[in-house]
Design goal:
4 helices, mainly alpha, 0% strand
């Protein structure tokens, strides 16, 4: 498979557990893209979309718990960014479930760009802070 969205070392937040979860999100976005293009229809793409949504929620929760444990001062802003994406994705899922939303290239681009931007800007901010706390 030619991955749409490939992990690069520049995405690393230097916290192994978070990097591994980010890589899993990349894999799920790529799997969704592949399902979309395979001609297998809405059911396949829908299943992958649901797994992507579930894993995103799991990842956000794990990341926020880690920041909370180490008293990361920018946690409220980080949590707000997570909530904004979660709200958008939940709204999309409702449309998809109702039959009024489709897995489109625009959705794929949005997910890819949001994830890349979030990791390279917002997530990078906690990297040095957590590393200084002994979290790697």
């Amino acid at each position: 498979m030619n991955a749409l969205f490939q992990w690069k070392p520049s995405y690393s937040v230097k916290v192994v557990a978070m990097d591994n979860q980010h890589k899993k999100l990349f894999d799920l976005v790529n799997e969704l893209h592949e399902a979309m293009g395979s001609g297998h229809g809405k059911d396949v793409a829908g299943d992958v979309l649901y797994r992507l949504i579930d894993y995103t929620v799991h990842h956000f929760s794990a990341e926020e718990r880690l920041m909370e444990k180490h008293k990361y001062p920018q946690l409220p802003a980080h949590r707000a960014a997570h909530k904004a994406l979660t709200d958008k994705v939940v709204a999309f899922k409702k449309e998809f479930d109702a039959g009024t939303g489709n897995v489109t290239l625009e959705l794929m681009t949005f997910l890819q760009e949001w994830l890349r931007s979030h990791i390279q800007t917002i997530d990078q901010r906690y990297s040095d802070f957590l590393n200084a706390q002994g979290v790697h």
